[in-house]
Amino acid sequence: MLLKSISFPNQDVSLLANESLIEIFLKTVQRNPQKTACVFGDITCTYQELDSKSNGFAQRLLELNIGSGNILGVYLPRGIELHVAILGILKAGAAYIPFDIDTPKERIESVLLDFNVSFCVTHEILNEKLQAISFKETDLSQKSAINHAQADSLAYIIFTSGSTGKPKGIPIKHNQIAFY
User: CATH code at 92?
Assistant: First the structure.
């Protein structure tokens, strides 16, 4: 087998931002508060509405002492609530592990237990040992901006398919994906 080095001559490191995803999102909210941020079916959400709803969810997490250093599972179907949850988690300074809605329960439990995750944002409880944070019991109408995320803090953990037998988690920090 021959290994060859590949170079990418058009790399522009000036596009990388030493900011959190939330800092970039908040700048977008300031520039475009009434523009559409999300559309799902018949439901639309402006940047200002998405910001307000995610602030409410972040506030709820902080009230539960969930913030910097915590990792939450996110097991929600596609939709605006998914975006609210992810932004709220990041605004609280926490990180998340996303799960596709078709992920088998056993795999979700295994991943969450591997990372000692005790909270999962979902519509149903996956395991009695985990606590679910439901949108139905959460007030999502906060207006003030919340941002406990740092550029070098963990944003999320994505998992490999597990072709070697056990999925491996790859931690991603805000500044590894934040760019202009």
Answer: 3.40.50.980
- Give the domain range for residue 125: 34-134+151-177
Structural domain tally of the chain?
1
118 occurs within a structural domain: yes
With respect to residue 156, please indicate whether it lies within any of the assigned structural domains. Answer: yes
Residue (of 79, 88, 76) closest to 121 by Cα position: 76
Diameter of the chain measured on Cα atoms: 58
Cβ-contact 91, 55 below 8 angstroms: yes
- Render pLDDT for 125-178 as a digit per residue (tens, 0 to 9): 655 555 665 544 455 555 566 888 888 899 999 887 767 777 788 899 988 886
The whole-model pTM stands at 0.81
Exposure string for 168-178, b = 16+ CB within 10 A, e = fewer:
eeeeebbbeeb
Question: If DSSP codes are grouped into helix, strand and coil, which group holds residue 23?
Answer: helix
d(CA 119, CA 103) in angstroms, rounded, equals: 17
Write the CB contacts of 152 (distance below 8 Å, at least 6 apart in sequence). Answer: 173, 174, 175
Has residue 85 been placed in a domain? yes
Give the span between the Cα atoms of 95 and 149, in whole angstroms. 9
Judge contact between 168 and 5, C-beta under 8 A.
no
